[in-house]
Write a structure and sequence with these properties.
The complex is a heterodimer.
Chain A lengths: L9 H17 L3 H25 L3 E10 L2 E9 L1 H24 L6 H20 L3 H19 L6 H32 L4 H10 L4 H18 L8 H4 L5 H10 L4 H8 L1 H5 L2 H22 L5 H21 L3 H29 L17 H13 L5 H15 L3 H26 L15 H16 L11 H6 L12 H22 L15 H6 L4 H49 L4 H22 L4
Chain B lengths: L5 H21 L3 H25 L6 H31 L13
Classes of the chains: A mainly alpha, B mainly alpha.
Enzyme class (chain B): translocase
GO cellular component, one term (chain B): plasma membrane
Protein name (chain B): NADH-quinone oxidoreductase subunit K
Chain lengths: 617, 104
């Protein structure tokens, strides 16, 4: 099965081209094409995964380009990580394809939406199959394109247009770092292949400084894609896209590409202490930073977006702490519970036609399926015991602690508290309390939307059990080929993690459930906190005032140079030609005397030239 | 006896030629223009004769040339005046600036 793993991304690619060609005529039946193709992808991915479970890594490469003596190859590799990611990506994509059939029902560009989803799924599956950096980069940019198209899907909305452009430009800033790092590696190693790079990093062909430099440069690319500080601002804005897209791209798969990249290049990072520390610190800081912003936002999707940023920070923290397994484990569980949360949020938005959580409330009874499903997702992300998030978060905390990052460990604990708090704040405001919306006919979403959520809810609980300290660390053993270090973590870590998440839930309940604690209890005591958090630490404004204005000033200067200097020269040349032409045409007036005068002046000039040069011109 | 040097003749010829040229290029009346052209030809004749007498290789050639020039100039004047007559009959004008059909 592993020999034909390369077919996995081709199904959605076919769906993309097919729907582009005939989607207009198929209207809403095009959903079936998309669903069928992703189902095939998922089934084949599953087969590949089972094949890989018992087998070893399979790799196939063909020479793609020959430049001098350098051969660039293209191919695919089925490593443990790749096989795992294939299943996660194709499964979430499949479920989102089903869900979208209900959510996008009645949209004029229904088939275009499915075509874009196909393009994105193709690119993402291609990305996780790539055996070398160059191929990764190609698919990396393709997923960026898919994300851009889908964020800007409602292109008639100004905000969506702006958000699409912002996402494209912000991630591009990171991509420049990735690109430079990739070229540096190629220059030093002479190959893009992961295996060659790891060998070079190991045997010292790459100097220590070069390893650190390239690792950090590539990490900048991951920062852009995974919405880490300081390039995180595009991700919350990306929520302008349709909600299934937010679930698929901006929660479960594409934003995890940055984490995947660091994981795929893990031996390179391991070779540099500094690079690892950078990854851990950026991740830890982002986790806390985004969680605090999430505390006060009132747009249901934005709260989820900031929690995504925060959870991605967790994954980076895990990788930076040296725990490859914890990062991938959290990536997996997060993909399921965050996709579930987004799909449930989409179902809520579908019902009440608003995204403002202040205008929701009292939906628990009105939506008997979405409510409990959302609760499962919330419990999972909050790290309540027995749910998947609990195990993966615990793994990360253990990793941070055992690798001696004490400060980062406590940051992660505080973040876990905030996460539990804002997620339950969201839950109580949306589902609890009194009705605050004007929608009269609130109804549960159709089965086509609830079914994928039910599957995801099962996974949001079950996915945790592939790797637990109690029942066995299957995922860790398999991902590391049995070399998984069973760290003896102090038992109190799990207790602390549970305690803070329960505390967060309790506090949220006091404030938003029971309402015995005033909502402005803190903000009325500590001024400016609320406005600081509400305005997301003024990061957007800061970028506008610095980079934005600087770019505008430079552009203005350049436009003046263009208008007056470049265009001036062009106009001068044009004017010279024009003047001499009009002069010449004025001479040609048919007056024989003018002709005589011109002839005479010409002769005189020739004589003068002759006199000065002596005839030897 | 020859106290007058070559340059004096040349300057005279130059002045005559310039007057002729000026007239030929500025006067409106075609008859005056023809007369001015005669003036320029005569300036050339003075040059030819002066060089025949005072040039580096004095000889008869210059004078013969001058005679030819006078003949050709007479023929030219006859042809020019005839052309002018024909033009006048057609266009009812002898003003050179009104004869500009070369333009198109």
């Amino acid at each position: 099965m592993m020999e034909i793993a390369w077919i996995v991304p081709l199904f959605p690619l076919f769906s993309f081209f097919f729907l582009l060609a005939v989607g207009k005529k198929m209207k809403e039946t095009s959903a079936y094409v998309g669903i069928l193709m992703t189902l095939l992808s998922f089934l084949l991915s599953l087969a590949v995964l089972f094949d890989r479970l018992g087998g070893s890594t399979y790799k196939a490469e063909h020479v793609w380009l020959t430049i001098g003596s350098v051969k660039l190859t293209a191919g695919f590799a089925v490593t443990a990580l790749n096989a795992w990611m294939l299943v996660v990506v194709s499964l979430v994509s499949f479920l989102v394809h089903i869900y979208s059939k209900g959510y996008m029902h009645g949209d004029e560009r229904f088939s275009v939406f499915y075509a874009y989803l196909g393009l994105f799924t193709f690119a993402m599956l291609g990305l996780v199959l790539s055996p070398n950096l160059l191929q990764t980069y190609v698919f990396w940019e393709l997923v960026g394109l898919g994300s851009f198209l889908l964020i800007g899907f409602y292109f008639y909305k100004e905000e969506a247009k702006a958000a699409a452009k912002k996402a494209f430009i912000m991630t591009r800033i990171g991509d420049v770092g990735f690109f430079i790092g990739m070229i540096l590696l190629f220059w030093q190693v002479g190959s893009f292949a992961y295996d060659d790079i790891f060998r070079a990093a190991e045997d010292g062909t790459l100097s220590q400084t070069m390893v650190t430099l390239t690792a950090i440069l590539i990490f900048i690319g991951a920062v852009g894609k995974s919405g880490q500080f300081p390039l995180h601002t595009w991700l919350p804005d990306a929520m302008e896209g349709p909600t299934p897209v937010s679930a698929l791209i901006h929660a479960a798969t594409m934003v995890a590409a940055g984490v995947y990249l660091v994981a795929a290049l893990f031996p390179l990072y391991e070779a540099s202490e500094t690079a690892m520390l950078t990854v851990a610190v950026v991740g830890g800081f982002t986790a806390l930073f985004a969680a605090t912003i999430g505390l006060v936002q009132t747009d249901i999707k934005r709260v989820l977006a900031y929690s995504t940023v925060s959870q991605l920070g967790y994954m980076m923290l895990a990788l930076g702490s040296g725990s490859y397994v914890a990062g991938i484990f959290h990536l997996t569980t997060h993909a399921f519970f965050k996709a579930l949360l987004f799909l449930a949020a989409g179902s809520v938005i579908h019902a009440v036609h608003t995204q403002d959580i202040e205008k929701m409330g009292g939906l628990w009874r009105k939506m008997p399926l979405t409510g409990p499903l959302f609760l499962i997702g919330t419990l999972a992300i909050s790290g309540v015991p027995l749910f998947s998030g609990f195990f993966s978060k615990d793994e990360i905390l253990v990793a941070a602690w055992t690798h001696g990052h004490v400060a980062l460990f406590w940051i992660a604990v505080v973040t876990a508290f905030f996460t539990a708090f804002y997620m339950f704040r969201l839950f109580f405001l949306v589902f609890g309390g009194e009705k605050r919306h004007d929608e009269k006919d609130v109804h549960e979403a159709p089965a086509v939307m609830t079914l994928p959520m039910i599957v995801l809810a099962v996974l949001a609980v079950a996915a945790g059990y592939v790797h637990t300290p109690w029942f066995g660390t299957f995922l860790g053993d398999w991902l590391t080929d049995g070399a998984y270090a069973h760290e003896t973590a102090p038992g109190w870590i799990m207790a602390v993690a549970t305690a803070v998440s329960l505390l967060g839930i309790f506090l949220a309940w006091l404030m938003y459930g029971k309402r015995s604690l005033a909502r402005d209890w803190l903000s009325s005591r500590v001024p400016y906190t609320y406005s600081l958090l509400w305005n997301k630490y003024y990061i957007d404004e800061l970028y506008m005032r610095t980079v934005g204005y600087a770019a505008t000033a430079i552009s203005l200067l350049l436009s003046y140079i263009d208008r007056f200097v470049v265009e001036g020269i062009a106009r001068l040349i044009a004017a010279t030609v024009h003047t001499s032409a009009s002069l010449g045409s004025r001479m040609q007036n048919g007056q024989v005397q003018m002709y005589g005068a011109v002839t005479f002046v010409g002769l005189a000039l020739l004589v003068v030239i002759l006199a000065f040069t002596g005839g030897y011109l | 006896m020859s106290s007058v040097s070559l340059s004096v003749y040349l300057v005279l010829a130059l002045i005559l030629f310039c007057i002729g040229l000026y007239g030929a290029l500025t006067k409106r009346n075609t008859v005056i223009v023809l007369i001015c052209i005669e003036l320029m030809l005569n300036a050339v004749n003075i040059n030819l004769v002066a060089f025949a007498k005072y040039g580096a290789h004095p000889g008869i050639t210059g004078q013969i040339f001058a005679l030819f020039t006078i003949t050709v100039a007479a023929a030219e004047a006859a042809v020019g005046l005839a052309a002018l007559m024909a033009l006048y009959r057609n266009r009812k004008t002898v003003h050179i600036d009104e004869i500009d059909s070369l333009k198109h």
